[in-house]
Every structure is written in C-alpha cells, then in structure tokens.
Design brief:
15 strands; 13 helices; about 35% helix; six-stranded antiparallel beta sheet; nine-stranded mixed beta sheet; Rossmann fold
Length: about 375
C-alpha cells in the first residue's frame, strides 16, 4: 500500500472518530475506491493501530528485549542501543511529517504538548519509557526523538555480578554498604549505568524499611515492598503548577522515610539531601553526573552554590553527611562496570575529597591498603543493623 493511501485512510478514520477496526478500515478503503482481501485488511489494521495508538514504526523496537535506547535523528536515521553500543536500524519513515506526528502523539499520550509554542518535551510514557523530543527550528535537521526504555525488572546485585558489571568482591562490598545503611551517591557519565546499579542496591532493602523515592522522571523500579515514589512536575501551558525536586525532597522528609533516595541530583535539591543526611536520615542515596569519583565534591559544590550555600558550608555538609561514592563507567565495547568505591573525607583545606577503597581494573577488584578503617566501620555498622 502506498504511503499516500495509508495517509488518506488514517485521515478518514480520524475525521470519523472511528477506531482502527477491520470494519472501519474496510469502509474507509471502499470510500477511497480500493478493495483488499481479508489478510491485507488485517495487516493494514495492525499498521494503523500502531500509527494511531502505539509508537508507529518504532513499536517493534520498543517491544524488542534488550534494547535500551531508540533514537530518531531523521526519517532515514533511526538508531538503537542494545547494550553493545549504537547501531543503525533498518527502520525508515516516509518523511519529516510522519516523524513529527509520532513525536506529537507520544507527547500527547503522556499528557504533554509538542508544537511551536512548546518545541520540546521530556516525559514518561505509560510503559515506563522516557521520551524526549524536539522539533524544528530548535532541531535543525528535523524532529529528533530519544526514547530510553527501562528494563522490565531491575537487576539484582547477583545479576550485576553474573553479567560482568561487578566482580564478586565488588558485589560483596556493595552488599555490606547497603546493609550497613551508609549514605552514598553513584557517579558516572550519561548511560554509564548509574540508575541500574542504584536500582540493584535499593532492591537489597526488601520489605524491611520504608523507602521514599524522588525522581524528576520515573526510571527506578526497585523490588521493594515498602516504597513511596514521587515525581516532579513541570508547569502547564499557562506556566503554573510546577512542582520541583526540591519541593518533593522537603515533603519526603515529613513522610517518615527510613531511607531517602533522589534518582538524580542535578539542582537545588542537593541542599535538602545533604541537610537530611546530616540530621539523622541514614542510608540516603542518589546519583550524580560526574566524569570521575574525584569530581563528585566539585559537582555537588557547584549545585549547592547555585542554590545559595557558601563553599565551606557545602563541603562541611558533604563530609559529615555522605560516606562514599560509587563510580560506574561504560567501557569502549559498551559494557557497564562498577569501577570503584571511594570514601569521602575532609582534606587539610577543609574541602571534601575522595579516597579509594576498592577499584576494579581489567576485571579484577583490589582493596586499597589504607581502606581498613572504612571497611571496619562498614562491617561494624552492618552488624548493628542486621
């Protein structure tokens, strides 16, 4: 079937407010003067249902196990990531109009708008996937769509070990870390696996404690029996109704959390998190973008300075409230690994710095010779909370 006939049938269904049923599609075809066999009509029904309700041509990719990202750069440039790096798919759109319609339909399904007045959107779809789309003139080469697909069920620490993302020794240290209720942040670059590792650690909590989870866009799916999830909200078309991450963190502290988790620390909410960790809220955690563990204090400092704190106050809160940094990396071949665990300490200049506890290189984890005091505290705390 030609693209033009498909467009005309689609238009007739929309105009008549009819669903993409075999009867409605056959009637639309008759009005166009076209007769098709039963099998062709059923095939067309499936295509139209994907077009009108699903993700159109991207549906097979979103349903394919193992694919984590689907990226549309242009009608003839669709890329996927199945964990081994970006690969160009054989999916092709008929043109820019089809890509833009798909982006607008996906945005509408998430309760958002995408048009000249709101030329970009960042939203969570009903299936849990995270959608980002931007249209011209902001995107010079046409509508760009980025979809991050969450795993149906989060990894466990043992599965991270089995997949090669963590060595057995690193898995043991991470288990001790979460059981001892130490506070930590997971650092790494975009796509390095921060959320995956955080989800595995949170799933270790089980039903024992009340976890309050705050996210900008819901991505974490910890296997916990007692979890309260909250998601920030952007403003509506009138510019009202915004609820920030900072607002939610403040509210979460009044919800009797045993543990507080911020999915991604990237704004003024860092002040509330650090304050909470300094006022009796043990075991708090989150993720932060950083190229290395040693960059984390500077990253947190920059975020807190923008929120109005001074430098010394920020580093005092970091040193007193955060116990360690878990750094993850994505290797050249696409493998995501837990690169190391680093203790946070106060330096001679009163600024926070990191000290290596355990570092993985070439698949082997080595414990630093000066890490004994940290490991002693780790296991002592675990004994207290077990």
């Amino acid at each position: 079937m030609s693209a033009s006939l498909l467009d005309r049938v689609r238009t007739r269904l929309i105009a008549g407010q009819g669903e993409a049923t075999p009867a409605h599609v056959a009637a639309a075809l008759r009005e166009e003067g076209v007769l098709l066999g039963d099998s062709a009509v059923l095939e067309l029904v499936e295509v139209l249902r994907r077009e009108l309700l699903g993700a159109g041509r991207l549906d097979p990719l979103l349903r394919s196990p193992g694919i984590t990202d689907v990226l549309v750069n242009a009608p003839d440039s669709v890329w996927i990531d199945d964990g081994s790096g970006l690969v160009r798919s054989d999916i092709r759109f008929t043109g820019e109009d089809e890509v833009r319609r798909l982006a607008q339909r996906l945005a509408a399904s998430a309760g958002r708008r995408l048009d000249d007045a709101a030329p970009f959107v960042d939203a969570r779809l009903a299936n849990g996937a995270r959608l980002h789309a931007v249209i011209p003139p902001l995107s010079s080469d046409g509508t760009a769509i980025s979809i991050r697909i969450p795993r149906a069920a989060g990894f466990t620490l043992q599965e991270l070990c089995d997949s090669g993302s963590a060595t057995p020794l690193m898995r043991e240290l991470l288990t001790d870390l979460i059981d001892s209720r130490l506070s930590f942040v997971i650092s790494g670059g975009t796509g390095a696996g921060k959320t995956t590792v955080l989800g595995a650690l949170l799933s270790r909590i089980g039903d024992k404690e009340r976890l309050v989870l705050v996210e900008d866009s819901a991505e974490l799916t910890p296997q916990c029996g007692h979890v309260v999830r909250m998601q920030a909200r952007t403003s509506n078309v009138e510019g009202a109704g915004v609820v920030t991450m900072r607002d939610l963190v403040r509210q979460s502290l009044r919800m009797r959390p045993d543990r507080l988790c911020i999915g991604e620390v990237r704004g003024a909410e860092v002040v509330e998190l650090l304050t909470a960790l300094n006022t009796g809220h043990e075991g708090g955690c989150g993720t932060v973008h950083a190229n290395s563990a040693s960059d984390v204090p500077a990253r947190l400092e920059a975020l807190a300075l923008m929120a109005g704190l001074d430098r010394i106050a920020v580093h005092s809160l970091i040193c007193a409230g955060l116990d360690c940094v878990i750094h993850v990396e994505r290797l050249v071949g696409g493998q995501r690994v837990v690169q190391g665990i680093y203790a946070l300490e106060r330096g001679s200049d009163a600024l926070a710095k990191v000290r290596a506890i355990a570092v993985t290189s070439d698949g082997v984890t080595k414990i630093d010779e000066h890490a004994g005091d940290f490991l002693t505290r780790l296991r002592r705390n675990r004994a207290v909370h077990s």
